[in-house]
Structure formats: structure tokens, C-alpha cells
Amino acid sequence: MSTPRTVALAAGLAVLAGGLALLAGCGSPQEPTPSANPSGTPVAETNAMPTNDPTNADRDPKSMTDEEWKKRLTPEQYRVLREKGTERAFTGAYDRTTDPGTYRCAGCGTVLFESDAKFDSGCGWPAFTAPSDGKAVEEHRDTSWGMVRTEVLCRKCGGHLGHVFDDGPGPTGLRYCINSASLDFEKKGAATKPPAKK
Predict the structure, then answer these.
(1) Could you say which DSSP state residue 113 is in?
(2) Which domains does the chain have, with CATH numbers?
(3) Cα separation, 194 vs 58, whole angstroms
(4) Cβ-based neighbour number of residue 1 at 10 Å
(5) Catalytic residue among 123, 154, 157, 177
(6) Does position 4 have pLDDT exceeding 60, yes or no?
């Protein structure tokens, strides 16, 4: 017989399990192992992001200070890009965007993904099968939260974008699960411009 206490305990465990599934990338059944990541690119072990900042568009973003980044980004963008945060599932501006266009790094303006590589994974974050240019992103082994995942970063500024998993559709079989806060969307036909100072 269920008592109120056992029902409350079961509900609490269900909420905890659901939260861990979201942190793991929508319950991805296969997490990358230390020796193999989903995209097959070399993976480096890192525990912290470089402390950089991009205020001047002509300046190397990796030489920027935290104060410069804070002036350039919104608080949510700073938390995601510079502190490796994650926006809540289904809350990001680009999760359901289907317009044709280009997704750029919100920190430095680098082209990261094209809309033709975007798909609805149902996980609550924008998902892509591949970056627009494999050299635009870099991947690092991420062992935070008691899991082994492959973190995706902007190669130019070092900003945290999200994670990549090997449960995506063909032909790559990859799912780049990216935070909307780390992206700026340029609708097809719109003029190219550097990221605006926030």
C-alpha cells in the first residue's frame, strides 16, 4: 500500500531522473566514451573555459577579459557562453525556428550552422546535424555533472555552445544540441553584420 510519504519520495525521484535526462542531452542513450566522441574529431580534456572577452570586433576574442564579455553579452549569453551554462529546455529563441538562414556565434559572429542542417530533435534545444564548416567549432571532453559528454565550443572565441551526441539522423548520425543563447540568427537575405553590443 502506498503511503503519502512513499508517493512523495517516488515523485521526487522521478523529477530528479527527468532533470538528469535533460542534462544528459534529452536522455541520449549512448554517451560518448573518453576515447571516442560522436563526430570523430580529436577531443581535449578541459575543466574550465578560457577567461576571454570580445568588445572590439577587430580584436582577437580570446584575448578579451571577463569584464569586456559582460559588457558585450546579455547576462544569459554570458552565463551560457562564458560560464558553460545551459538554458532551460524549450525556452530558447531558436528551438522552433524554421526560417532559412545562418546561425552565428553570439559572442564573436562566426558562422556556426546553416538552417538546412537544423532538425527538430524534440529535446528542447536547437539541433543540427553538422556545423557549416567543421573548423568553426571545436570539441572537448566534458565530465561535468557525473557524465561523459562531448562539449562543443566556438573555435574563434572559445564560447560554450552545447554538446554533440551520436543519436542524430543520417548521413552524419550526429545531433549538435546547441543553446539558443549562444547563437544569433541571420535570416536568409538579411545583411551580414557583426554582433551588436548589448
Answers:
(1) E
(2) 46-187 (2.170.150.20)
(3) 10
(4) 3
(5) 177
(6) no
Rounded to whole angstroms, what are the CA distances from 179 to 33, 58, 118? 23, 25, 13
Residue-wise pLDDT for 8-60, tens only, equals 444 444 444 444 444 444 433 333 333 334 555 444 333 223 333 334 556 78
- Per-residue pLDDT, 171: 87
Measured between alpha carbons, how far is 114 from 15 in angstroms, rounded to an integer? 35
Q: Which residues contact 169 (CB under 8 A, 6 or more apart)?
A: 119, 129
Helix spans in the chain (H) = 4-23, 66-72, 75-81
Looking at residue 154, what is its pLDDT?
97
Is residue 98 classed exposed, middle or buried when 0-12, 13-18 and 19+ CB atoms within 10 A define those classes? exposed
- Burial degree of 174 (CB within 10 A; 0-12, 13-18, 19+): buried
User: Among this protein's residues, is 177 annotated catalytic?
Assistant: yes
Nearest-angstrom CA–CA distance, 126 and 97? 8
**pLDDT tens digits for range 165-181:** 999 998 899 999 999 99
- Please state the rounded mean pLDDT for residues 108-129: 96
